[in-house]
User: What shape does this take?
Amino acid sequence: MEKAIRGGITCVQMREKEMDGATWTKEAAAIQAVAGRYRIPFLVNDSVEVAAAVGADGVHLGQSDGSVAAARKMLGPERIIGVSAHNVPLALAAEKEGADYIGVGAIFPTATKGDAATVSLPELQEICRAVKIPVVAIGGIREDNLHRLAGSGIDGIAVVSALFAADDIEAAARRLRRLLPFGKEEENR
Assistant: This one.
């Protein structure tokens, strides 16, 4: 993770599906310490409790991980709360409930979440146009397909394998940063 931060990532999210609560909390605290040293926001995926326990900068909630209101009550007004949404109605509902950003995916097939249905590029564009909060694309994004997101309106990408399967994580992060096709078109806002 530290190599990825040195390569230019701007946020860290811990997604953990296998650890018991105590181990998860211990690992999250260690990651929070590293992210904090670099002043990079650290989010915990799925667990408001773990995020609160380690003083994370926020949490990312899937559709079945609880409400934004409950997370906000537990974490406070200053923490970041992201919500997964794979269509416009879910994105609008998350925005209305007070989410700080929307995570949309899987954009491309991904090995890290084999059961994830893909979201079409036109649907991603519709989501970006529909909400006023940032949209982060996730799922199967790599150097060789990142260009396909140009003009979509996204504000960021979330990657796992594109960094952590690379021989040189820091260099991979730098390359991804150079390739980013960002920029919401103002006329769509």
About this structure: The chain is about 40% helix and 15% strand. The CA atoms of residues 59 and 67 lie 11 Å apart.
